[in-house]
Amino acid sequence: MKPKNLGKWRRTHLSQEIDSDLAGEKTTIMGWVTDIRDLGGIKFFILQDFSGTIQVTAPKAKVGKDILNEIDSISKESAVAVKGEIAKADQAPRGVEVVPSEIRVLNPAETPLPLDPTGRVKADLDTRLDARLLDLRRPKPQAIFKIKHGAVQVIRNHLTSEGFVEVYTPKIVRSATETGATLFPISYFEKEAFLSQSPQLYKEVLTGCLDKVFELGPIFRAEEHDTRYHLNEVISADIEVAFSTKEDVIDILEDLIVNIFEEITEDHEEELETLEHEIEVPEKPVPRITYDEALEKLNDAGMKLEWGADFSIPEQRKLREIVGGLFFITDWPTEIKPFYIMPHEDDSKLSHAFDLLYNEIELASGGTRIHQRGLLEKQLKNKGLNPKRFEYHLKNFEWGLPPHSGWGLGVERLTMALTGAENIRETVLFPRDRKRLTP
Ligand code: ATP
Ligand code: MG
Q1: How far is the CA of 6 from the centre of ligand 2 (A)?
Q2: Is 362 annotated as a binding residue?
Q3: Residue from 184, 214, 219, 424 whose mutation best tests the ligand 1 pocket (most atoms within 8 A of CB)
């Protein structure tokens, strides 16, 4: 069967817009065929579109032979357009169906399909990701991306209403911001360049002119992780605020996170139901403990951690049991935080860095930044980085860059928290990990 063009056909209703009050009206619907049945005197199929599903019912006594033949020839997941009449039908889902007068197969799907479109036959994650288009037609993956979209909207609206300016910084860069070990090199004409690990340096500079900035954009990490929480390309929601300290930006993050949970609970009830996931809006104030307090709690609970140790999943899981779901850890050892974090004035082993944790995952990291050129150069050297490579960045610190603070929030980790997704790959349309570069 050859694919057909739309011609003059246009969609008049989404499936969810069709209800029994419209009985008797004409409609043109477009979408994908997910299930086809022949019950003897009646043939029907389920047409699915972005909004939901609608049953298309062809009673053999009522519709023409050409329509019945057309239905017989349709394969599941084919894109189709149906013209017909809306009818009340007690036995159909939502009590309504469409009786077709004309069917146009816009693009027939090849059989066999790699996935069962109804989801009745379970597929593993790799198979699903390989056939992501088909996978994303199903309600659960769709619900995840509707919630992710909702969360990004809240971030954008919330920060805009707080006076932030949305910015876009380069993703092709000359030097590292985190550690040199996790950079993806690219060839940039005759120079060496890298994919950006974070908008860190640019957003800091922008506090010297735009005051409060945020960016929603990709970050690239050449980490060889193979965990449920790491990918090599993710979206980061980043902010940076002039004339502020970590306490100020912790407050901003706290308000934002609570706002996101509130709005998602209110506006995405249907998606949360589809995902069979319940979320609780966190209460303010979100607990804040220092690194030293966290270490003490962990060691009291039987762990044997030296001062200066970073926490990973086992420690974070333990802290979840002791402290609770959502909490901040502040004042980390300088040694395990990036070069741009401000050390304590009276004890340079400690820094003004913080993390936000939700259950056992780190959602965000931030802190007060260094705004003195001399100190920044010293910290670069301490981290084994060459200040010469940062000369363009360091120059800004001679031009009155204000004291500033900020954070980066992982949008996919946030989406995991909101949707209950067990694997971060579920929250990215086309994930990039160590083994996966396609599709
Ligand atoms: P982790 O310790 O969990 O590997 P990180 O401390 O290296 O994360 P940051 O540099 O602090 O990450 O980045 C800020 C936020 O961006 C993180 O808290 C996380 O939400 C997100 N993020 C960073 N790297 C990744 C990654 N590889 N995969 C998923 N999210 C990431
Ligand atoms: Mg971090």
Answers
A1: 50
A2: yes
A3: 219
CATH number of the 135-427 domain: 3.30.930.10
Burial of 367 (C-beta count, 10 Å sphere; 0-12/13-18/19+): buried
Q: List pLDDT tens digits, range 338-365.
A: 999 999 999 999 999 999 999 999 999 9
Burial class (CB in 10 A: 0-12, 13-18, 19+), 94: middle
- Of the residues 179, 214, 228, 236, which should be mutated to test ligand 1's pocket, given the most ligand atoms within 8 Å of the CB? 236
The number of the ligand nearest the C-alpha atom of 312 reads 1
Q: Where are the domains of the chain?
A: 15-107, 135-427
Which residues sit opposite 35 in a β-bridge?
46
Contact 203, 215 (CB under 8 A): yes
Domain range 15-107, its CATH number among 2.130.10.10, 3.40.50.300, 3.20.20.140, 2.40.50.140: 2.40.50.140
The DSSP annotation for 169-231 comes to --SEESS-SS-GGG--EEEETTEEEEE-S-SHHHHHHHTTTTSEEEEEEEEE------SSS--
* Nearest to 37, CA basis, from 24, 12, 10, 55: 55
Note if the bond before 285 is cis, omega within 30 degrees. yes
Q: Please check if 178 is assigned to a binding site.
A: yes
- 254 Cα distance to chain centroid: 19
Q: Closest Cα to atom 6, ligand 1: which residue?
A: 365
Q: How does pLDDT run across 97-138, given as a tens digit for each residue?
A: 999 999 999 999 999 999 987 788 899 999 999 999 999 999
414 CA closest ligand 1 atom index: 20
Tell me the CA–centroid distance for residue 395 and ligand 2, in Å: 26
Distance 178 CA to ligand 1 centre (A): 10
